[in-house]
Predict the 3D structure of the following.
Amino acid sequence: MNPNPLSQHKMRPLILTATLATLALAGCSGDQPAGGPPKMGPMPVTVIEMQPQKVPTSVEIMAQTEGARETEVRARVGGILVKRLYQEGETVKSGQPLFQIDRAPYEIALAEARAKAEQTAREAARLKGLAEARAVAQKDYDDAMSANAMAQAALRQAELNLSWTTVSAPVGGTTGRAVKSDGNLVSTADSLLTSIYQTNPIWVRFSLGDTDLAKFPAGRVTAKDVKGVELVMGNGQKYDKPGKLNFLATNIDTTLGTQALRAEFDNPDGVLLPGQFVRIRLLTGERDGAFLVPQTAVLQTEQGTLVMTVGAENKAAPRPVKAGEWYGKDWVILGGLNAGDKVIVDNLIKLRPGAPVEPHPPAVPGAEQAVAAAKKG
């Protein structure tokens, strides 16, 4: 059947209107490629301009703190532990009572020893006059004197045993966990009750292996090789007090191939606690003309160590570098960079060589708050 001419005539205005609308939309989107996402602009990146500087040469190694004096607190007499007299972990003074052992058996023993001593003393005094008058044999008097001396010694021992039922701190320092609980039986064979750690000064124990020892002229550390000692805490911050070496082994451990060392740091506020894992930095000299680059900006690849820099026309350019040791949160770069180079320190995962970038310097801490405050003012 042929289409109705009248219907075709009515459809023509509708088709023309739709065509004009399509052309209008195409005209409005003429700057956008057909069928693709909008074109991305240069990526904003933070850059640090490199300048050569003097950097201390150092060796950094993992270490562990320990008390300058670690003293075991032991019971001298056995018995039932009645009470713990201190709070575990608190600082105590020398002579401060820490534990109380049941006193009753030792009080009874002391009373018996005192009675015996008084008896022998009276007997010795009675025989003394008779011996002078030669009314008794000299042997009887000598035996009485010996018996009295033994009784007096037993009395002194009983007094000591009673005093030892109160276990006191032999030194001042920070207390450890109590090994025995209230009600436990304490014996002289199992007498350890707790330990006390002297934390001021505090010691830091560490060892250097073959790789680190090779950095020293003699293949081992000597006192003249170390110009200073620094401590880096677990959060990456440097401890504010310098240290010094107080022990340096003169031999290399034949089993581990390491040289043992120990440093000492003042710790008046108790910031450092025994058993902490820290890092020790041995300062060995000074290097001139080095560059410091944040550790996060140094990339380790199969081709070697490199950093991303801002090249010509503000495009990302990889740069191979020679990295030395760590210095704080930075790598010491010994080669591959020149003064004025701009090293990219963020958005490294998103960057590709040759990608356009928009470099800007690092933000100044507190700048945004200052701007906001100025606007409010």
The first strand starts at residue 43 and ends at 49. Residues 1-31 have pLDDT under 50 and may be disordered. Residues 104-132 form the longest helix (29 residues). The helical segments are 5-28, 104-132, 138-163, 210-213, 367-376.
